[in-house]
């Protein structure tokens, strides 16, 4: 079993040094990590093949295998992601504002690292490099605990990053990996008080629920994505079709893909056959309410659980609604506060939707697939936070920091 206390001690020591590292040094190390990632492509792909073979033997679906699979192109993209993080502005040390109070004290609010971040995640090896680079740039040491599906891939990726740090004379303990995937070790990581400053789960609903119920260290909840697209009565048919196909089918295994389609009664008869035909090309299974079922040629009845399920597959729940208000109520009842979209040419309808839907990202006439740190200009992301405290939406560098007050005096004491 991994000695988590030792990892914690090493991470804590590394975090003090990393928190004081200047931006130029951090950026140079990140660029070197990216270069080393590319240089070890063959080794990484071999490890990934072991993970893919094991996953296939365990009957994992093709969509989930896609989350796990690495290619030369994806490794290059991971390396480019690290370079993009290096190119971002460094938030550490930034003084947001400074003012003089009535006692003559100069009070400033300065951005600082969180310290040591633990991340528990599943399946996707690119999370390893994204998380490591973001934590490193923001001055945080990180302890990574990936899922068993990507164990060999993650192990090699972290090894490459650690060796890059060592080769440049820096502590490899700024980036560490939990070398076993047992549930017992994961639970101990969730209670590593005194070493972890924050824990971030990234994965499916069961993982996030387990972390929230078990952790004694502070948790930033990154959400599952039960995302909706609502077609208003004033929507453009072509636009709506293109957006739904993209939101559902471009990459159904990710958290910002659409899981439920809501459509206004006034356009259901016209729209649903068109959408059904477009989705048929991708073999999307439609689970429809009674009204939609009567219009579709090939669908199955939806059950209550379908409205709250993150399918992560070529499955779409479909419901006909009588009004925009009903659509908003349905979304706020069943969504996971991730990403929601309205398709409409009606300005007032879009404004109502944007203001009343409770989610981290709300779109008008665009696909939910855009909820992403790269797309938003943050570089790589730690995850999509669906909570409201500290961080919400794609979590970039700024969301991995805290603040402290720096106060300058010239002999003042409080009367």
TrEMBL record:
Keywords: Amino-acid biosynthesis, Cytoplasm, NADP, Oxidoreductase, Proline biosynthesis. It catalyses: L-glutamate 5-semialdehyde + phosphate + NADP(+) = L-glutamyl 5-phosphate + NADPH + H(+). It is found in: Cytoplasm. InterPro entries: Ald_DH/histidinol_DH, Ald_DH_C, Ald_DH_N, Aldehyde_DH_dom, G-glutamylP_reductase_CS, Glu-5-SA_DH, GPR_dom. GO terms for molecular function: glutamate-5-semialdehyde dehydrogenase activity; NADP binding. Residues 41-290 form the Aldehyde dehydrogenase domain. The keyword NADP applies. Pathway: Amino-acid biosynthesis; L-proline biosynthesis; L-glutamate 5-semialdehyde from L-glutamate: step 2/2. GO terms for biological process: L-proline biosynthetic process. GO terms for cellular component: cytoplasm. Pfam families: Aldedh. It comes from the Bacteria. Coiled coil: none annotated. It is an enzyme of class 1 (oxidoreductase). Its EC number is 1.2.1.41. Catalyzes the NADPH-dependent reduction of L-glutamate 5-phosphate into L-glutamate 5-semialdehyde and phosphate. The product spontaneously undergoes cyclization to form 1-pyrroline-5-carboxylate. PANTHER family: DELTA-1-PYRROLINE-5-CARBOXYLATE SYNTHASE, GLUTAMATE SEMIALDEHYDE DEHYDROGENASE. Belongs to the gamma-glutamyl phosphate reductase family. This is Gamma-glutamyl phosphate reductase. It comes from Candidatus Enterococcus clewellii.
């Amino acid at each position: 079993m991994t000695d988590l206390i030792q990892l914690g001690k090493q991470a804590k020591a590394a975090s003090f040094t990393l928190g004081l590292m200047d931006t130029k040094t951090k950026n140079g190390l990140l660029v070197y990590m990216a270069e080393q990632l590319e240089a070890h492509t063959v080794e990484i792909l071999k490890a990934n093949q072991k993970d893919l073979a094991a996953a296939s033997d365990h009957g994992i679906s093709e969509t989930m295998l896609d989350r796990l699979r690495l290619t030369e192109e994806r490794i290059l993209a991971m390396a480019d992601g690290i370079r993009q993080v290096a190119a971002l502005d460094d938030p550490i040390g930034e003084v947001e504002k400074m003012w003089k109070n009535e006692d003559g004290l100069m009070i400033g609010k300065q951005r600082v690292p969180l310290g040591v971040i633990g991340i528990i995640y599943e399946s996707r090896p690119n999370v390893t490099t994204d998380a490591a680079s973001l934590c490193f740039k923001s001055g945080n040491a990180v302890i990574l605990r990936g899922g068993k599906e990507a164990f060999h891939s993650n192990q090699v990726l972290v090894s490459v990053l650690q060796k890059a740090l060592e080769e440049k004379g820096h502590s490899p303990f700024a980036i560490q990996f939990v070398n076993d995937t047992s549930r017992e070790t994961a639970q101990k990581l969730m209670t590593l008080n005194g070493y972890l400053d924050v824990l971030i789960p990234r994965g499916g609903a069961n993982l996030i629920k387990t972390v929230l119920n078990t952790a004694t260290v502070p948790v930033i909840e990154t959400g599952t994505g039960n995302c909706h697209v609502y077609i208003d009565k004033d929507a453009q048919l072509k636009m709506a079709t293109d957006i739904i196909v993209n939101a559902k089918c471009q990459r159904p295994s990710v958290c910002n893909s659409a899981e439920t389609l809501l459509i206004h009664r006034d356009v259901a008869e016209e729209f649903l056959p068109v959408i059904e035909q477009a989705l048929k090309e991708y073999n999307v299974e439609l689970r429809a309410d009674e009204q939609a079922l009567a219009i579709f040629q090939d669908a199955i009845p939806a059950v209550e659980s379908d409205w709250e399920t993150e399918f992560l597959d070529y499955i779409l729940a479909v419901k006909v609604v009588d009004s925009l208000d009903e659509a908003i109520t349905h979304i706020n009842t069943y969504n996971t506060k991730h990403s929601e979209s309205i398709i409409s040419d009606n300005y007032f309808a879009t404004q109502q939707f944007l203001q009343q839907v409770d989610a981290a990202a709300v779109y008008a006439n665009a696909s939910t697939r855009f909820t992403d740190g790269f797309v938003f200009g943050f570089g790589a992301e730690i995850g999509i936070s669906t909570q409201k405290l500290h961080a919400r939406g794609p979590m970039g560098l700024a969301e991995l920091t805290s603040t402290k007050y720096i106060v300058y005096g010239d002999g003042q004491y409080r009367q």
